[in-house]
Amino acid sequence: MTDTPTLGQLVLSKLGRVIGHERSEQELSLVLAQLQLTSIDSVDDLERVAEALQRRPGFVATVGAMLSVDVAMRRLRAS
Question: What is the DSSP string of 23-79?
């Protein structure tokens, strides 16, 4: 059995596949600071991070859009 990744790990993984590990950590740190979050602890936090990433330039915005789909899917499964 594998451990389920945290929401923060999910974001880093998706960003890392597109822009690389180092830059993904920088982007996530920047967004978390802007949102005054220290971690992504809920689907609501994930939604805020996804929306903030969508306002970033380039492929980062695309990852934010993909994460918004993930948020919607998580909410559908929870209902």
Answer: HHHHHHHHHHHHTT-SS--SHHHHHHHHHHHHTSSTHHHHHHHHHHHHHHHHHHHH-
How does DSSP classify residue 17? H
How far, in Å, CA of 34 to CA of 28, rounded?
10
The owner of tokens 């740190």 is 29
Largest interatomic CA distance in the chain: 38
**Structural domain boundaries in the chain:** 7-78
Whole-number Å distance between alpha carbons of 69 and 50: 9
Enter the pTM of the model: 0.92
Contact 34, 79 (CB under 8 A): no
Percentage with pLDDT > 70 across the chain: 97
